[in-house]
Amino acid sequence: MAIEKFNTICSPTWCPGCGNYSIWNEIKRALDELGIPQHKTLIVYGIGCAGNMYNTINTYAWHSLHGRSIPTAVGAKLANKDLTVIAVAGDGDALGEGMAHFIHALRGNVNITYLVHENKVYGLTTGQTAPTSEKGFVSKSTPEGVIEVTTNPVSLALAAGGGFIARGYAGKPQQLKDLIKLGISHRGFSFVDILQPCVTFNKINTYPYYNERVYDLQAEKHVTNDWGAAMGKAREWGERIPTGVFYQDKREAYEDDLPQEKGKPLAERVVVKRQVRTLYKEFN
Amino acid sequence: MAIEKFNTICSPTWCPGCGNYSIWNEIKRALDELGIPQHKTLIVYGIGCAGNMYNTINTYAWHSLHGRSIPTAVGAKLANKDLTVIAVAGDGDALGEGMAHFIHALRGNVNITYLVHENKVYGLTTGQTAPTSEKGFVSKSTPEGVIEVTTNPVSLALAAGGGFIARGYAGKPQQLKDLIKLGISHRGFSFVDILQPCVTFNKINTYPYYNERVYDLQAEKHVTNDWGAAMGKAREWGERIPTGVFYQDKREAYEDDLPQEKGKPLAERVVVKRQVRTLYKEFN
Amino acid sequence: MQHEVRFTWKIGGEAGFGIKSAGIIFAKACMRSGLYAFDYTEYPSLIRGGHNTYQVTVGERPVHAVHQAVDILVALNKHTIDQQWSELSHGAAVVYDEDEIKLSAAKCQAKNIQRVSVPFKKIIDEIGGGEIMRNTVAIGASAALIHLPLAMLNQIITELFASKPDAIALNIKALERGYAHVKDDHKKEGLIIKLEPVAREKRLYISGNEALGIGALAGGLDFFAGYPMTPSTTVLQYFAGKAVEQGLVFKHAEDEISAVNMAMGAAHVGARAMTATSGGGFALMGEGLGLCAVSETPLVLVDVQRPGPATGMPTWTDQGDLQFVLHAGQGEFPRIIAAPGDIEECFTLGAESLNWAEKYQLPVILLSDKFLGEGYGTVTPFAEDKVTIERGKLLTEKTIPKNYKRYKITQDGVSPRALPGMKNGIYWADSYEHTEQGFSSELASDRVAQVDKRARKLATALKELPAPKLYGSTKAQLILVAWGSTKGPILDAIELLPKKYQGKVSLLHFTVLWPLDGKAIRAQLESKPGLLARGRKVVLIENNSNGQLGELIRQESGIEIKDKVLKYDGRPFFVEELVQHITHFLQ
Amino acid sequence: MQHEVRFTWKIGGEAGFGIKSAGIIFAKACMRSGLYAFDYTEYPSLIRGGHNTYQVTVGERPVHAVHQAVDILVALNKHTIDQQWSELSHGAAVVYDEDEIKLSAAKCQAKNIQRVSVPFKKIIDEIGGGEIMRNTVAIGASAALIHLPLAMLNQIITELFASKPDAIALNIKALERGYAHVKDDHKKEGLIIKLEPVAREKRLYISGNEALGIGALAGGLDFFAGYPMTPSTTVLQYFAGKAVEQGLVFKHAEDEISAVNMAMGAAHVGARAMTATSGGGFALMGEGLGLCAVSETPLVLVDVQRPGPATGMPTWTDQGDLQFVLHAGQGEFPRIIAAPGDIEECFTLGAESLNWAEKYQLPVILLSDKFLGEGYGTVTPFAEDKVTIERGKLLTEKTIPKNYKRYKITQDGVSPRALPGMKNGIYWADSYEHTEQGFSSELASDRVAQVDKRARKLATALKELPAPKLYGSTKAQLILVAWGSTKGPILDAIELLPKKYQGKVSLLHFTVLWPLDGKAIRAQLESKPGLLARGRKVVLIENNSNGQLGELIRQESGIEIKDKVLKYDGRPFFVEELVQHITHFLQ
Ligand SMILES: Cc1ncc(C[n+]2csc(CCOP(=O)(O)OP(=O)(O)O)c2C)c(N)n1
Ligand SMILES: Cc1ncc(C[n+]2csc(CCOP(=O)(O)OP(=O)(O)O)c2C)c(N)n1
Ligand code: SF4
Ligand code: SF4
Ligand SMILES: [Mg+2]
Ligand SMILES: [Mg+2]
After folding, report:
1. Closest to D330 (Cβ–Cβ): which among C316, C324, C558?
2. Buried-most residue among A40, B70, D54, D398 (CB within 10 A)?
């Protein structure tokens, strides 16, 4: 298959059955189908099981700090707008340590794609609660069950001003791939929340759990330009769990508003000494 | 007046006409009317013009780090639930540097009150954009105007799971005082967004600007237990700007769920050596 | 192998197959049989798939070090044999399944390796229970090899699965099958252990992190906030698990910045508070650390080190954070840094650090590391009686003086402390520089007075804190200088030196890393003032690449320790390599 | 007062009344008249209400220091007279409004103070324009006192308000009224300045922060991300204002953690990138700093210091962050630290640091402070011609070798660098320890090889970075040791020493603070190896309380500098106190 060119000498190390395998495959397929050259792609990974995908995709890669994939991705994109920049994060990464960056990236709208592996647990640190854990979830850091209200990344993203908001599921690879492609193609910050069973530490939100519940918004003719409708769907979680595109707007990406981004990408311009004499005037 | 007992040897240092004066007064009035003893009150201040209130209120006080008033307030409350704990922050403080804590405090629901002085600018650092600045706002850090979408703290608070969400205005002191009192009386995390004209660095969102636009939700019979209605009102900003209580729920405060919080406050128990022999069992 | 029994048992396989839990059962069985066990795990920062090993060194006398030479190797997969082959001691036994792994007699000849094939696969297929049961079979087989009574293992299994009778039955079956398979076919003379079973409650098999947790509980900890980070996570989890039962509040915070500020908030109102993390999380606490110092709030921060920078090697060990935690946070302010040398000191410091924090009203940083924090060893129950609760100059409502000033300038640098909630104690706790009352001040006089006052605390503390401790003779030919977790391995290595070197080596071990007394250090290292080590060698041993204690010693005392043994490959010091290094310096 | 003209003019009033802008107009007028001006502001961390002062020392020769003795004091309120009285030099003039402030002849007698009353209130009431016009009236009056031509001031006002004709007219009226009021009544003999007007473009009146900004622009800066923090904010604002015009991308990030990671992202793909903050923001960048080093990303981080810890004294000065930035970030990794000594060096380092970052592929930290960063001084246009662009081992698509390995082990520690977007250059930039290709690795051999490789960069850099510079004779009787922003004040103080001491004092000034060459330092401070300062004194001067450079010098060279002049009250060194200290050590 064509996607083999995206493999590296490293094999994934996730638990057998982990939802990350599917996400890994669909990212590669999406990139392949979009025909983006590997060397024009930069993937920024967070720290966690999700982020451990780092070694296994053959594009430029940056393994960031826990919680900090977004700012690095934003900086890279602003400095080289010709790159396709994707950030891959866990839900602890994205919504625990990295919450502030998430909210601000949504308002900033730099043209990158954010894939958040929502397994509702801290996988790599072997099973503490994530902000997405359901109320009452028993974990190593919440042995009496989670007290806090569950973080809903989709409704947060809407409230923060996100311009492309979707949800995929590791158990629906075809749709997931399409959502990733749509996200990458969206001009602006795109957010894809990905339901990802953690077979080792989350015995609640399993494949069967999701298989019984997920449905496709697009199959139900959800309109994606109605914020209120999107928020209504965003808050649905229980018997039925919506997947697909919740919301998409048409506003310009951040960098489209910067005159200095016109022309060649910053990083591809030859660095030359600037003549700064003209800057002296205000100081004379 | 009775509120003079809340004054200290320090006078406020805000610019003449600054909205902070009114907020300062209404905080003191609210405390006074609620009859909370000064020594049973701890106010945690952020860093900014808002936070500079620190020296001028005669209750226990903690001047925190920029952005970090919430966690300190939460820690203090969990350790001494008998204290009335209030956090006072600027909007840069609360929604820039401190965004993550805000979102997580809303879900956590520890019983403190958060007063955010929304002046839509960084005052103390002399006039850069705040997350709340309106699109196009020209400031020292955005000389070409703000590109990002404006952060709406009220809709974010709703999406994050807040249980008491209100908005006051420095220009309506009576209502502001009532909202602060309601917030303090609410059992759980209460958030009061306070519109505060910065007469020095914000020439857009001035007293006249707000005077023309604000209205009282309660005067218009807004029901406060309807999340959808609250979100609808939260998104209103323009010709008309709603103030008052947007939303209030009845869920338990975080600490109500902790058996170890029953009885005396943690910090008032006599610290004694614990007998740890019983803990050895799992290691024998 | 010495005259006494001391051997190393190691099990290796794929990550995620419960190797460690199995190892602990084996270790506990040895412990209850009267022996001492000390373990070591190597596992990658992955959940599955990587190579995992767990080893226990078992001895008649206490063990505090990792041994490189393996005497019994349980290989759950071929990779283990390949990877660990070079570690096998002469005459070692390899337990494996010849149905799955080929191990030729020829290969074994050179080192006289004893092959012990156990049909793991066949057994688990027969009894059911899945891959994870291999471990149990392997333990049964291992027990047989050293004639460890099966009953002891059965007992431990029974306790462990108390709530799951099915699991007990299954595991006991697996144990028995493994045991039976080996018993008659093999024995391993040198390793047969002398059994002197001890009462269960007389010994603990415990990690440094857990010991620290128990210590802090003994010391009256009220509040803990943290964010998970390997290898500190088990500290956090220990408190999470005990919170309700022990009446402390535990909070999994949204990040480390929040954690340190929450803990400070709790400490401010009077709770005994702590946070724990590894270097990366600590890097986010620097500003809070300074706030803690300037607001004079008592707080304990634990850094369980791993190799950095950045994400580094999350599941490996290092002592690379000393200078970092000493200088974390902008500006200049006092702090105490202490590093436990072994599991017992984890307990002691877990309790005592809370006293120091309150007595001097400043942040106390405990520096542990993966090796010490996650490693299990055998100890006798901790010195609980020695734990005291000292709250320093804490006021009560009744003792608050008129015109109370929280930041009063005092001789010893410590000012009497009221707590929010107390009548007549109202004060302002400021992150700005401030007056004695706590109002923000930019006066030169206030600034200088407060900086000096805060600095004086360290002079005060220096008089009371434990000085570096010399293990061995002051006249030794070779003085090793080390800090924190290397203590156990170094002392074990000194013990294992050939007879002719016995008594010739001492260890100067630093538990308190800051404040340091440069003059006292000179006195301990110099034979005559100004004359370093006449006829005597001083060698620095650190688990980092810069020799950071060496840097500090030179900075504070002027003494340069030129001979250094630095290890920074993520592994702790193995006792054999220490013996070699020490021998080298003695020759 | 020396033979040549040098005087200090100071204006004081309430915060928020545009005192500083007024002062700058006055300073520029002096500058264009052929003099050198150097300013100093004291303002509280408040927007209004606090006490604000602005002072300029003006001289025929360049000035680099704050003078404590004030020769002309403009008091806009009574508080200024009270507060600044002790600073007045003998025979100083006080400009004030006797309608508002009482100043008795008796009070003035002792110091022979010249009272110059100007009816500020009356004038502004008459001409309109509000409180802020007092400043302009005051400048007019001050100009008259020293016979500075009114035309020069009018010219500057006209340029300044180019877009606001009304403001020009009003201000000129205010100037004239102030000038006229004084002209005939008073003069101040000693201060009458010799005018040798210079062409406008020959001199700049500029702050260190702005000079650094211009330097970085000259050096090809492409990307800046930051978060405002006094006293670094003007660096950020400088770039914000120039972004579109100069074609760089500027981002006001949501916090400092984001800022450093954004800048790293930009640097990673090949942009020249920078971030700037003060200590508190830097404390949030420690983890990023380590990531920068381990991923070998070229980045410049600026810390404009203020007194810490925590919020500290935001608008005051300090050199307390040296050890902090040297050790910020968990684990051990290389970094370069440099501190500009004056405004010219702000420019030079602003450009050169970008080269160092790329040549050695590591973080470069520039340590400035409030005194240098926010202080304005007169300089000649910067040495633009000397600026070079050196990108080190940067590859192009064509030069990428087959089987390219980003983290190849090299002799000098630096490995050829491809950029994302380049064909055949794909690599993995890891925050974990890694292989030469950049895949995560936990092998002991990879770890050691990469740690050693990274460490070698500093050895490489040490050969090329500027060594500490000796100002004055190598044989001087007294050697002052200092770093960063104290250079100007110390050199000015040496110049101002009584004649008998001329030539007896040298300054050993450190611009590069890390890496340090202990041996070279010994060579510079010792007269004979091992013999420190025979017949010669060495004195450490630092704007902090611990003498941090002294700590590092002892750590690296073993030399203990016992004599120290440490100032940590938030104020910079005043030239008079330095003269006094130096004289003391010479006696
Ligand atoms: C600053 C910092 N804090 C904590 C950690 C430890 N850590 C590594 S991964 C992780 C969380 C993993 O959870 P998540 O982000 O949900 O990813 P998952 O493993 O579930 O895919 C944590 C807390 C770290 N590496 N850095
Ligand atoms: C970590 C850190 N970053 C930056 C600052 C500088 N700083 C002080 S106040 C402030 C922002 C003030 O704006 P806001 O919070 O909106 O308060 P306001 O002054 O408008 O009331 C900033 C950025 C700081 N003190 N600490
Ligand atoms: S722990 Fe969970 S998320 Fe991590 S690899 Fe295993 S199944 Fe996947
Ligand atoms: S700057 Fe703005 S917010 Fe700050 S004191 Fe002045 S008016 Fe108030
Ligand atoms: Mg997760
Ligand atoms: Mg604000």
Report:
1. C324
2. B70
Q: What's the rounded Cα separation, in Å, for the pair C295 and B161? A: 33
**pLDDT at res. A198:** 98
B199 near A CB under 8 A: no
pLDDT value, residue D196: 78
CA–centroid distance, B131 to ligand 6, in Å, is: 9
Q: Edge-to-edge, what's the strand order for the sheet holding A41-45? A: A214-216, A241-248, A164-169, A190-195, A113-118, A84-90, A41-45, A60-63, D428-429
Chain A, residues 245-284, CB within 8 A of chain B, namely: 251, 254, 257-258
Contact A260 D220 (CB under 8 A): no
Distance A20 CA to ligand 3 centre (A): 8
DSSP C207-222: EHHHHHHHHHHHTT--
Q: Are A107 and A86 in contact (CB under 8 A)?
A: no
Which residue did the predictor score with more confidence, C217 or C533? C217
Name chain B contacts of C266, Cβ cutoff 8 Å: 75-76, 78-79, 266-267
A153 Cβ closer than 6 Å to some ligand 1 atom: no
3-state helix, strand, coil split of chain A in percent (to 5) is: 40, 15, 45
Does A242 lie at the interface with B, CB-CB under 8 angstroms?
no
Residue B93 predicted with pLDDT over 70: yes
The DSSP code sequence of D483-494 is EGGGHHHHHHHH
Q: Which region holds residue A221: left if phi is over 0, alpha if psi is between -120 and 50, else beta?
A: left
- Its pTM surpasses 0.95: yes
Establish if D44 touches chain B: CB-CB under 8 angstroms: yes
Sort strands D6-14 and D51-59 into parallel, antiparallel or unpaired. Answer: antiparallel
Q: What percent of chain D has pLDDT over 90?
A: 85
Q: Do A38 and D381 touch (CB under 8 A)?
A: no
Residue D218 contacts residue D387 (beta carbons within 8 Å) = yes
ipTM of the complex: 0.97
CA–CA dist C481, C526 (Å, integer):
13
> Which distant-in-sequence residues (6+ apart) come within 8 Å of A77 by Cβ?
A83, A85, A110, A111, A112, A255, D265
Q: Does position C77 have pLDDT exceeding 60, yes or no?
A: yes
Min Cα–Cα distance to chain C from D317, Å: 11
Q: What is the pLDDT of residues D157-197, one digit of tens each?
A: 999 898 899 999 999 999 999 999 887 666 555 566 667 78
DSSP state of C66: B
- Ligand 3 pocket: which of A198, A203, A204, A205 to mutate (most atoms within 8 A of CB): A198
Ranges C25-39, C231-245, D5-19: which has the least confidence: D5-19
Contact C276, C302 (CB under 8 A): yes
Q: DSSP letters along A134-146, please?
A: PTT--BTTBTT--
Contact between D53 and D74 under an 8 Å Cβ cutoff? The reply is: no
Of C394, C410, C366, nearest to C267 by C-alpha is: C394
Q: Between D144 and A105, name the one with better pLDDT.
A: A105
What separation in angstroms does the CA of D228 have from each of A229, D285, D324?
38, 14, 20
- Rounded to 5 degrees, φ, ψ at C428 are -115, 120
Domain annotation for chain C: domains and CATH numbers: 6-189 (3.40.920.10), 207-386 (3.40.50.970), 393-464 (no CATH), 469-586 (3.40.50.920)
Hey, are the CB atoms on D327 and C323 less than 8 Å from each other? Answer: yes
First vs last Cα of chain C: how many Å apart? 23
**Mean model confidence pLDDT for chain B:** 97
Q: HEC states along D155-205?
A: HHHHHHCCCCHHHHHHHHHHHHHHHHHHHCCCCCHHHCCCCCCCCHHHCEE
Q: Grade residue C1 by pLDDT with cuts at 50, 70 and 90.
A: very low
Tell me the C-alpha distance between B227 and B204, whole Å.
Answer: 30
